[in-house]
Automatic annotation (TrEMBL):
Chain ranges passing through the membrane: 51-69, 89-122, 134-155, 161-181, 202-223, 254-273, 308-327
Oxidoreductase listed as a keyword: no
UniProt protein name: Monosaccharide ABC transporter membrane protein, CUT2 family (TC 3.A.1.2.-)
Annotated GO MF terms: transmembrane transporter activity
Organism annotation: Micromonospora chaiyaphumensis
Amino acid sequence: MSDTTPTAAPERAASLPAQSPPVDPAETAKADRSAGLSWWRGDGGEGAKRNLGLLATLVVLVVIGILTRPDLYGDASWVWGNTLTILKLASVVGVVTVGMTFVIIGGGIDLSVGAIVALAGVWCTTLATQSYGAGGMIFSALTVGVAVGLVNGLLVSYGRLVPFIATLAMMVAARGLAAEISDKQTQVSNDTFINGIASTNVLGIPLLVYILAAVVLAGWVLLNRTTFGRRTVAVGGNPEAARLAGINVRRHTVLLYALSGLCCGIAAIMLTAQATSAQAAMANLYELDAIAAAIIGGTLLSGGRGTIIGSLLGVIIFSTITNLFAINGLSTEAQNMVKGGIIVAAVLVQQVQFRSLTQFLARNRATTT
């Protein structure tokens, strides 16, 4: 009777799953902080750090304005009105810069954006086009912009021309065609709807600012949330790798220049509304402003990297500088010299950052080997 059979309790206990060790909340928080720091120090936080730097630059410009003109910045109503003036000044160039950002990220450059704006503006203000009303004028400007952009894209992708040469030739040709169409005269816009775009305010904010916001939002979604945006970065970063991955590089390049032309068509309507007229000399040096804003915003000239928000901040910075020079009575020549210096400084900073990144990757490869 003393030799009893073993019970099944130990077997059931042994079949229970092993419990995981208790989680230390302090260790979890430490891991989360480490992950956040690694993101901030890595490529993911590069854009955020750059945008914060641009915001800090804007703050510095505002402080300079306060120190140089305290009599104006002491008036709250003037400050609000001046802010709207800066945004309105940035609206047309900002729309052009969105298209330019896509082209540069895709590994190209477009020197003809100002000429496309002039040609689209002149074309949509001819008497024949104005006879179709506001809809005909808008359709004409957008169509001309897209058509010229397509020609640029075809010359670059299928004609194998260097983007600098192709768009430089288009800049000269488009200006000449605009002068021929307008007979070197200023063409007045008689359409009240088109002219009202520049003078209309919605909730106290100019309609031009809303148009800029809509284009920037659409560009941000297209670049960051669509296959088109990912392909743009891939084509600009390494065209051969993008081709091997199945991307039609030539067709995508054509679409990028067409997108830039579309933005120029929108800008032509906005600029025509502001001036209530169009001429072959309008939008002069807009290519300089757009390229400069994109570079200041962190878009890499060699392609493969850039942000729409950074480009927008670059446009606002240049508009603020222009406004700052105006309220202090400084000349346009001095303003252009400052812009040129900012462009050179931005490119130098990009080269230093790219060189540092290359050296860092090389050290990592050597360590791994």
